[in-house]
Structure formats: structure tokens, C-alpha cells
Write a structure and sequence with these properties.
The chain contains six helices and four strands. It has about 150 residues and is of the alpha+beta class. The chain has a four-stranded antiparallel β-sheet with strand order 2-3-1-4. InterPro entries: ArsR-like_HTH, AsnC-type_HTH_dom, HTH_CRP, Tscrpt_reg_AsnC-like, WH-like_DNA-bd_sf, WH_DNA-bd_sf.
């Protein structure tokens, strides 16, 4: 059953999506309410799985990495859950998304800034998967905007 969230919950989510470091006091000030109300709502949103994770967006270039997105198409009938489990166990894989459209899976990986290493990692990842028909590779040069709400 889908959980009901209201405008207040959405305001909390939007503020945290812009800055996950905001504390209860700061959120309460922005929203014109009490820390206790914010605390109760956040606990509810976390408990119900609406807020899954608090995170950061690092500058991969400054860290010496390349951010790559793989669009993977597998043969129809190939069990995606098995493929997803294989991908989830790779430390270079940062995001795995099921998709409808050109690709069945969209996979975000982080690899050192060395094209031979990039090629090796892509070959390694896709080689473990079954029935891969096609892989499209996209190199991300900059995250210009990242906003989920």
C-alpha cells in the first residue's frame, strides 16, 4: 500500500535533497515549526522507506575518477534479478536501475581516470552478466543538476 505524505513531508524532503546536512533545528527554522515535529516526521519517512538514504555528490574528477553510465540491454526473458545481484556485488558499481525502453538496466560505475582501466572494468562487469545484447557507454563530464524532488 502506498504511504500518504503531505505538503510538509514534501517540504522536508526537498530541503534535505538540496542539503542532507541540515539538522532538526535548521529544518524547523526553514519550515516555521518545532524540532520535535520535524523529528517525528523524519522518523516516519525513514521508517516507511520514503527516505532511503542521506548522501553527498562528490566531485569525481577531483578524486581522480571517471563517472560512467552503462545502458545494458539483455535478451528478452533473461531474469533481471539475477543480473542485478551480480551488479550489486561489484564495488565499482554505484547505481543499478531497472529500466523500460532502450535498455533493461542502467548502471553507474566509478573507475580511475585511465582509459585502459575503464575498458577493463566495463568488460569485467558486462562479462559477468548473462545474455547481454548491447552495451551503450556514456562518460559523465559534469553533474550540472542533481535534484530528485
Amino acid at each position: 500500500m502506498r504511504k500518504k505524505i503531505d505538503k510538509f513531508d514534501l517540504q522536508i524532503i526537498k530541503l534535505l535533497s538540496k542539503n542532507a546536512r541540515l539538522n532538526y533545528r535548521q529544518l524547523a527554522e526553514y519550515l516555521g515549526t518545532t524540532r520535535q515535529r520535524v523529528s517525528r516526521r523524519l522518523e516516519k519517512l525513514e521508517r516507511e522507506g520514503i527516505i532511503k538514504k542521506y548522501t553527498i555528490i562528490p566531485d569525481f574528477d577531483k578524486l581522480g575518477y571517471i563517472y560512467v553510465v552503462l545502458g545494458i540491454t539483455v535478451t528478452p526473458g533473461t531474469p533481471l534479478e539475477e543480473q542485478i545481484e551480480i551488479l550489486k556485488n561489484d564495488e565499482s558499481v554505484k547505481v543499478v536501475e531497472r529500466a523500460i525502453g532502450t535498455h533493461n538496466l542502467v548502471v553507474h560505475i566509478l573507475v580511475p581516470k585511465d582509459m585502459k582501466e575503464v575498458e577493463k572494468k566495463i568488460t569485467e562487469i558486462t562479462g559477468r552478466l548473462k545474455n547481454v545484447e548491447k552495451v551503450d557507454v556514456t562518460f559523465i563530464t559534469e553533474i550540472a543538476k542533481f535534484e530528485l524532488v
